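not sure who needs this but someone in the group chat was asking about Lysoplasmalogenase from Photobacterium halotolerans so here u go. i didnt clean anything up, its just raw.
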Amino acid sequence: MWVWLAVSFSALLHINAAYRGPQWQFYLFKPLTIVLLLATTLQFGHGDIYQQWIIAGLLCSVAGDIFLMLPKDKFVPGLTSFLLAHIVYSLAFWNELSGPIVWWLPALLMGAGIIVYLLLLPSLGRLALPVGVYIGVIIQMTWAAGEYWLTTRTGSGLAAFAGAMVFLVSDTLLALDRFRGRFRAATGSIMTTYYLAQSLLVVSVLLR
C-alpha cells in the first residue's frame, strides 16, 4: 500500500512541476517514479525470468526518461531506449504463452497503428522511418501482452495487457503532441498514462 502511495506522490510531483516548477522537482521525480517501481519489482517479485525482463524494461525506461527530459532534448536516444524497453517487455509476454494465438488482435492493433502513422507522417520528416519502426514495435508488444492474457486468463496477463494498452495511448498522445501540435493538457495526460502503464506492468509481476 505504502509503496503505491509513494509512486503516486512522486508522479504527481513531477506532473505538477512540469506546469508550475520548480525545475529541480521536474528533473528529480520523473525518473524517480520509475526507480520506485523498479525497487517494488525487485523487492516483491518472485525472481523468475518474467520479472527479469520487466526489470530490464524499467531500466531502459529510466534511460529514456532521462534522455527526453534533458535541456537539449535527445529525442532519438530517448526513442531508442523506449524501443528497447518495448522489445524486452515483448520477450516477457511471448515467453508466457500457453496456447494457440489469435489473429484478430494483431489485425485490429495494426490498423490502429497505420492510422496513427498516417496522421503523423506529414510532420515526421527524417524521423519517418524511426517513428514507423517504433510504432511497429509497440504494436507488437501490445499484441504479445494481449496474447499473454488471452492464452492464460490470469490476473498477471490482464494487468500486462492493460498496461500495454495504456502505454499505447500514452505514446500516441506523446507523438501527437510532438508532431501535430502541442496542447496544454499534453504533459498531464501523457505522464499520467505513462506512469499508469508502467505500474500495471509491475502489477503483472506481483500477481504471478
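also The CA atoms of residues 86 and 138 lie 6 Å apart. if thats useful
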